[in-house]
Design a protein that fits this description.
InterPro entries: ABC_ATPase_C, ABC_ATPase_put, MRB1590-like_C, P-loop_NTPase. The protein has 316 residues and is α+β, with helices and mostly antiparallel strands. Helix content is 30%, strand content 14%.
Length: 316
């Protein structure tokens, strides 16, 4: 929590990068983050392929199902729901969320809006009604940067105030405020978080061929050319080096050889990482045994994130 320009997002950025080792005495000695922590955000326009987003979005108009939801052009709230569910599918342990890059209607629905728009007419269950369930039922924590809503005081385990880039524990004061300034809003979405549904990628959606050649190249940190598709990874904020992006491009190509519909996404990723652990990262290189190229091993979350954003992805 805290006012603008007092270091909230800066602290979260440091926590994001804390999933990686860093140089001694670089100023981040105390920034140590669970390696399975993932930054998620809204991402208007991204593709979603058969993701179960029903814990957050349900009862769409015309009876459209959200248990296997697909779209070529996701809205802010839908994309944020998909981003969360995809990372839960991969086994993340902590979500890192900044209100500045979140969809407002995904994060909160206050009492006045509940009074005006009944739940029967609102398909979105806001994150505020799922975050405790996510922790208690799925063992997934959340670090949330907020500056515009105190509604989360009621459910937070710890409230840290950033003041001139210094952190202060104000949990007791936040809880006192929550008790004296009641919200009047009603919890939504039921008592259970919902199901996390595994998906099985198929090789036909992972064809790197472009004309007579195969193309799987990185263009800087956030762009991959894969076959005839340009893949935008700008929403994967924990990518830190183009060498990771180059590795992801080649790993996607490797998936095309491995994906037979028998393995779910997390199993497929685990299988590839096990092989890399045994034989080395250069097994993904077309120059295996000669030179590996400029490659660095990405985390499984960024690899899966790239696969999920591939517009040719097909799953069952």
């Amino acid at each position: 929590m805290g006012g603008g320009y007092h270091g909230k997002s800066t602290l979260l950025k440091a926590i994001e990068r804390g999933v990686y080792d860093h140089i001694e005495r670089d100023g981040r000695e105390y920034v140590l983050t669970d390696p399975d922590a993932v930054k998620v955000r809204a991402e208007d326009g991204r593709r979603v392929e058969k993701v179960n987003i029903s814990p957050f979005i349900n009862n769409l108009p015309f009876g459209r199902s959200t248990e296997s939801f697909s779209t070529e052009d996701a809205s802010g709230s839908t994309s944020q729901a998909a981003n969360i569910m995809e990372n839960l599918e991969m086994g993340c342990s902590c979500l890192l969320i900044d209100e500045d890059t979140s969809a407002t209607n995904f994060m909160i629905r206050d009492a006045r809006m509940q009074a005006l728009v009944s739940k029967g007419k609102e398909p979105i269950t806001p994150f505020i009604d799922k975050v405790r369930q996510l922790y208690e039922q799925k063992n997934v924590s959340t670090i949330l940067v907020l500056g515009g809503s105190g509604d989360y005081f009621d459910i937070a385990d710890r409230v840290i105030l950033m003041d001139h880039y210094l952190p202060y524990d104000v949990t007791a004061e936040a809880k006192r405020i929550a008790q004296t300034h009641t919200l009047g809003r009603q919890p939504e979405g039921g008592k259970h978080f919902g199901e996390i549904t595994p998906r099985r990628p198929l090789s036909k959606g992972l064809n790197a061929r472009k004309g007579n050649k195969e193309k799987a190249d990185a263009k800087g940190l956030h762009t991959i050319m894969f076959g005839t598709v340009q893949l935008d990874l700008s929403a994967l904020e924990q990518l830190v080096d183009p060498s990771q992006t180059r590795a992801i491009a080649l790993m996607l190509k490797k998936f095309g050889e491995m994906a037979d519909g028998q393995y779910c996404l997390s199993e497929l990723v685990g299988k590839l990482y096990s092989e890399i652990g045994e034989r080395g990262l250069d097994i993904i290189s077309p120059f295996y045994g000669q030179h590996p190229g400029d490659l660095a091993l990405p985390r499984k979350y960024e690899l899966a994130g790239a696969l999920n954003r591939l517009r040719t992805l097909v799953v069952k």
